[in-house]
Amino acid sequence: MLFYKIILILPSYPGHIIEKIPELPLVVSDKVQEITKTKQAVIFLRRVKAWSDVLKVYKSQRLRAGKGKMRNRRRVQRKGPLIIYHKDKGLSRAFRNIPGVEMLNVNKLNLLKLAPGGHLGRFIIWTQSAFDRLDALFGSWKTPSKLKKNFNLPQPKMANTDLTRLLKSDEIRNVLRKPNKRVIHAKRKLNPLTNTRAMLKLNPFAAVLKRKALLDQARRRNQRALALAEKRGVKLPENHPAMKAEKLRERRRKTISAAMAKKPKKPAAKKTAPPAPKKKTVEKAAKKAEKKAAKPAEKAAKPAEKPAAK
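-> structure tokens emitted (310 positions)
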């Protein structure tokens, strides 16, 4: 009974259209196994209100987007209802041409068909004999399987499989601590030689130096172009970058000189006589001059010393 409980909990999870289905799980008579014509199969699906799910498959048929087109997987479509039967008396031939509808024997249940893509809640149509055979195949949590040796149904760890509802319940939220919304990011070590922002933090003047280097490079390039043109006797066109830069420089020079000419000149400062030296400084200077004059006279008065005899 495990599969039916999953279907009852999540009946429309993969996108099945089952609003008009009379009951879930949908169990039909064994006479369905005797259907041999596709026309009869379509009538059956319409009667059980499952045809809208097949129409969804028709509308979803499209060409594959990737390289699977070249690998024999050109077209893709949605999944339709899964019919699980006990004995095939023509049922597989009747339903095989309806897109999206898949058949499966109850003795060979395939998890890839029951939950395609790992998504629970596949819309399944059971025949009565297949539905009754499940207890003999898998047993229950109290009685073991009759057809499989040493097989017991796995005991579920959770009584309620709606995990999102459990996590958001007030009883659990009151016990848990408050979420830590403060996120501490590790500091990134940036190389200032390759990262401009890191360099500007260390040296704000680096942007000025970089700009100056670019301007100097452009100026040298323009000067070289002008020098080569003059050497070769070629006149550069007016729209050449070197000519434009030269005109701009000349215009700027004229503007600066005109602005300097209009600027009023500062009046010349009046020359004032140096302050008279103080008496003490005059006396000190006179004494120093007397000492300097007396030194050469003393040297001349001293007799020359004779060299010692050997």
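Confidence is low (pLDDT under 50) at residues 1-13.
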